[in-house]
Amino acid sequence: MTHPQLNIYRHDRGARALVTLAGVIDPVTAPRLRAALEQCLRDGITLIDVDLTTVDRCDDDGLRVFLDVSEHAAEAQAFLLLHHPSPQTERLLMDTGSDGLLYPMRPGGARPQRA
């Protein structure tokens, strides 16, 4: 059986990090994602931008990682922002009410509307 893969790329610019993800976020890959995002906070990053453009799927385990790290970031006066989620991931965020915590403002300041 082949395990899902998640590639994690990090690019720092001062106290800001761009974390680009590619692959699947599920129970197998979520611990690696958690470790990478928590490392950003330990390194003193105050704004973590997570690019989800090439994430094929994100399940509840991925959502839990984003919520937990967002909470830890807030405790450290830092922020976690998700960018370019797939329609499936956006729906997961909206259906769970997590879009307000994690979803950055769209151009013009509008947030996505719940269905």
From TrEMBL:
Q: Which domain of life is it from?
A: Bacteria
Record-annotated membrane-spanning stretches: none
Q: Which Pfam families match?
A: STAS_2 (PF13466)
STAS domain ranges (all copies): 18-97
Give the CDD domains listed for this entry.
Answer: STAS_anti-anti-sigma_factors (cd07043)
Q: Cross-referenced SUPFAM superfamilies, in alphabetical order?
A: SpoIIaa-like (SSF52091)
Protein name listed in UniProt: STAS domain-containing protein
Q: Which organism is it from?
A: Streptomyces nogalater
Top-level taxonomy: Bacteria, Bacillati, Actinomycetota, Actinomycetes, Kitasatosporales
